[in-house]
Amino acid sequence: MDAELIEANDTEVTLKRADRTAITISIIKLSQPDRDLVQAWLHERKQTEKFKPGIVPDVLGEAVDLLAMIDPAKDKQTGKWQRDANAIMSLGSSRARIVIPHPVSGSYQLRLVAQRQIDSGSLNIGLAVGNRHQVLAIFDYGRPKRSGLAWIDGKNEPSNSTFYRKPVFTTGRESEIVCTVHNSHLHITCDDKTIVDWAGDPSRLTLHPNFRVPSDRLFIETLFSSFRITELQYQSIHESELSRYKPRGKPTPAHSVALIEYPLGHGSGFLAAPNLLITNYHVIEDAVASELKIVFPEQRDSPKVHGVLLGDVDRDLAILSVQTQQAPLAVAHDGHSPIGDSVQLRGNPTMGSGVTLRDAVVKGTVRSMVRVEGYDFLQVDASIDSGSSGGPILNELDQVVGVIAMKATDEGEKWIHESLARLDDSFKNKPRHQAHQGIAFGIPGQDLVKALDHVRGLTAQQAGRNAQLHENRVVFKRLATLAGIRLLEANVNVPDVMRHQAARVTATRGADDLLELIPAEPARLLRAALQSEGPQHTVTLLQQNMDEHLKTIRSSPYLSQSTIRDFHALSQRIKAIEQAAERPGTDYLRFSATMMRLQKDVTRLLSEVKQEL
């Protein structure tokens, strides 16, 4: 079979036939030389699949069974505890605390499986952070139930940025809690749902003086409840970029909201986790990572952008991997944004004439949750301008409850204007911005949380694949735009003598297989427009570093060889069209045949590349 290898693993290979259809077969059906070829291909790809820093998964050490170490008689501090062969259980005391007899240091992960026995009370976990500091993770305390970290900057969980308002446990059902602890970053999940994601200087964390627990020990306590704990494991973390993450200062909106700039556009963004920058997808959809300039207030240097880890076109949401010590903003992981709450919107709006306001703050009020073009959005009473796209919407605890979405705001204003016009004819003739002023839409916080959890679950290989796919799409769009511009230039640049030939030829033999030329006067106007400063500057930007981008594509482990060849061929056809535009000659039939062939090739190549991307 004449086919190209496009994907493989240890058990099967995917091949693309000459007709571009794909087939997947078991590797055991291949001949030995073909198996050797597959193994060499896999080895080469593994060598090139490196993406760092940004998202680098934690490398965990051997699991230690902490549950087996605990002796309730020796290790309890308060309350009543008992154990059987498979579990330990607190027995409903007002406060029952047990210290785990195993020292911890550095970065680690604690995994706990617990079941609440009665429908009241809370479970708390004492964590050691940064070798000298401690903090209490609280789950389902009080009425209504709340969770978070206590204490941060001397504030308990209802008053700090980790406040989580929704119930965590279901009585009678086992839940898995995973606490991932680095020197300056804590990530806590329950049944794979993020409850706490905190980053900062560990000296900001304290434990109430009533707790007398050594600083290198973990502990568990229950308040006015009974919990049965069936699994308790500890694993040290040997390697992670977060182990070396040292944020500067406290996370504040004034410092963690950034201006995003590149030659073809700009917008806003903000850090929502260490080294993860949030923005709207349309802000960065036309930029490769190397072009993006991220400007934080009071920071002289722009952090390096390693790639786009998530680009959700439909949701208009993007997550970028950046390298910065800037502390991230807290996210309301419970998605809490009740109607009537006061919020603030931060961004970098454009005021016209090249003026951009840095870190502008607009106050607003959450009015409703609306559906625009199939997606839910927060509707906020606030006036925002272009350039604020991708900025955060924050509640009273400076938690992110939404992402400013200018595209949704434009659609929302259109929708409101049309609705008002149906109610009252006087609105039909009013400009849209006069029909309804002071409206903004935001991507809800719960959608941001899902996106962040998705990105955290990426392997280095998946992160690299996503980043490279975005780069490839940007290069593809630029080539497609250049092709259109060059084809138009070639058409309008033909001399008048050729236009006279075209008129005579098409009058005698028809124009089905011939290039239709734009009439002389419209061609003159188009030629002048294309040669003006604006379009020429755009062409220069589209061509900038194109050879370097194509070189990166040639070595990409995430594209088939046929698509890599198509990228190269597309670039060559565009150069040929550019040469034809510069020297069209005087022979219409020859020029027409050349341009029709190049146009057909470009159309085919664009279709084939787009199909894979």
Automatic annotation (TrEMBL):
Pfam families the UniProt entry points to: Trypsin_2
Record's keyword annotation contains rRNA-binding: no
The keyword Metal-binding is assigned to this record: no
UniProt superkingdom: Bacteria
Ranges in a coiled coil: none
Keywords: Hydrolase, Protease
Signal sequence bounds: none
Family: Belongs to the peptidase S1C family.
Protein name from the UniProt record: Peptidase Do
